[in-house]
Amino acid sequence: MRASLALILALAAATSASAADPRMEACGRDDVEACDGIIKDGAATGNDLADAYFHRGNGHAKKHDDAAARADLDKAIELRPDFVNAFIYRGSLSLRQGDHAAALADFNAALAIQPANGHLYYDRAIVLARMGELDKALADLDRALAIDPKDIHALNNRGRVNTMLDKQEQALADFDAALAIEPDRPVSLGARCWLRALWNRDLDLALADCNRAIALEPGNMVHRDTRALVFFRKGDFAAAIADCDAVLARDPAEASSYYVRGLAKRRSGQDGTADIAKAKALDPDVVAVYAHSGIAEN
After folding, report:
1. What pTM, to 2 d.p., does this model score?
2. Contact status, residue 243 vs residue 225, Cβ threshold 8 Å
3. What percent of the chain has pLDDT over 70?
C-alpha cells in the first residue's frame, strides 16, 4: 500500500509553527508526548494547532490506539476543514478498521479539495475495490493514470482490478507497462504470473515470472502459492504439492494452498479430501474463485 494509505509511516507534512519551540520538530515526527505538551499548554494556535492534533493522531495510530487517533484527526479537521492529509489519514484509519463507508467519505472530501491529486484517486480506488465497486475503482485508477501514466502502483492495481473483472488483455497490458518501468518489481511479476496461471495461458512465461519473483523475494510465500497454481496447470502435481507444503509450513491459514494441494493430490491419485475441506473452512469462497477459471473440485 502506498505511503498516503500507510498509517505506520510518517507523513512529510510541513508545519508553520515557530522553530523556536523544539517540541514542534519532535511533534512533526508524530511524537505523542511532544504534541501533547504543545496542545495542552497553548503553544500553538490555528493551523499550527491543527498540525499538532494531526501528528498526535498519527502517533496514536502507530501505537494502534485507534480511538485516540480518530479523536485527534477529527479535531485537526475541525480546526482546519481543508486539511487534506488529515482526511487521508482518517480515511486510512477507517479502512484499516473495515469501515469502508467512512473511508470513502474522507477520500471524497480530500478529492473535493484537491481534484487533480492522482494519489487520491488511487487511494479511493482501494476503498472502492474492497467495497466490491470494481467498475468505479477502475475509473479512479484510469483517472490516476491520466494524471501520471507512469504511476507503477496505479498500473499494478489497475491490473489487479482488470484481472478481477476478467479483462485479461487489459490486465496483462497493465502489468507489462509496470514491468517496463521497473523490470524486477516482485509484486508486478507475481501479479502477471497469477493472471496467466489463473487463466491457463502462457504457462512457461508465467513460471518464469514466478521464479524471478521468488528469487527476488524468497520469503514472500504469495509467490510460491501462485507458482503452485502454475505447476498444477502444467500437470506437475508433485511440484505443485511441494510449493503448497512450503507455503503452509510458513502460513498454515492459507486457504488457496490447501485447495490447490488437495486438487493436486487428487489428480495424482492421492486423497486430497482433508486439504480441500480445510480450504473451505478457512475461506468459503475459495472454490468459487478457482471454479470461475475452470478449475473444478472433482
Report:
1. 0.86
2. yes
3. 93
